[in-house]
Design brief:
This protein is of the alpha/beta class. It contains 9 helices and 11 strands.
């Protein structure tokens, strides 16, 4: 489902990063925080920027968020504010509530209160960093589902100069190459063109096949 209007509660580093990206995408974005200076800095950027006490349910209801498609609860360290914003967002009929959490226990509480999705940014970042460190080839690693992941890696030395048709990566590793990155991502991949050493590959692969692709990776 595509969402066109958002409210971001809490403008710490995480909240600002989310708000900035949404604003850049052209979406309608309301930002709410209790810091007057931060709200002032967003007054000319966001659709609406409001200073409010996010631990006060009456103040949150007064924002008029009933027509908002998606709420992002970005105060990972403030359980009280996260609880109030989650509960009021659901009561007001916001279609989707995404909540940042600093730990699993807090995430469980927010899920029980109605949050549709829980994000653990510190944990996710740590997992990606660890996977990058233990892999000699992977530049990026993203989980698409419980079984499938998207990886970015430079071609192995023995792949350079050979085409995808010659390499037959799908048969050997269960890989589906979906793009080639050379500054920009080229979504059309010609299976007849030889691979270059300086062009990264974007590949969908089943997790069970990763070890065959890179013997150094541990999942």
């Amino acid at each position: 489902m595509k969402y066109n209007s958002f409210v971001v509660f809490g403008l710490g580093k995480f909240g600002q990063a989310v708000a900035d990206k949404l604003i850049q995408s052209g979406a309608d974005v309301m930002v709410v925080d209790n810091d007057e200076e931060i709200i002032e800095s967003y007054s000319a950027k966001a659709t609406t920027a409001i200073e409010a006490d996010l631990t006060d349910p009456a103040a949150i209801k007064a924002l008029g968020i009933s027509n908002i498609d998606c709420a992002v609860i970005a105060m990972g360290m403030s359980l009280e504010a996260s609880i109030m914003c989650t509960m009021v967002s659901k009561e007001c009929g916001v279609k989707k509530v995404v909540a940042k959490s600093s730990n699993k226990r807090m995430g469980t509480v927010l899920s029980k209160l109605g949050a549709d999705e829980i994000i653990y940014p510190e944990e996710d970042s740590g997992i990606r960093t660890a996977r990058g460190l233990v892999s000699s080839n992977f530049l990026e690693y993203f989980e698409v589902s419980d079984d499938i992941c998207l990886i970015e890696m430079m071609p192995k030395d023995k792949w350079v100069g050979k085409s995808l048709k010659e390499l037959n990566l799908r048969k050997k590793y269960g890989i589906n190459v979906v793009g080639i990155k050379d500054g920009v991502i080229n979504e059309y991949v010609d299976p007849e063109v030889p691979l270059k050493a300086n062009e990264a590959l974007l590949m969908l692969i089943h997790k069970k096949n990763i070890e065959k692709l890179d013997k150094n990776v541990v999942l």
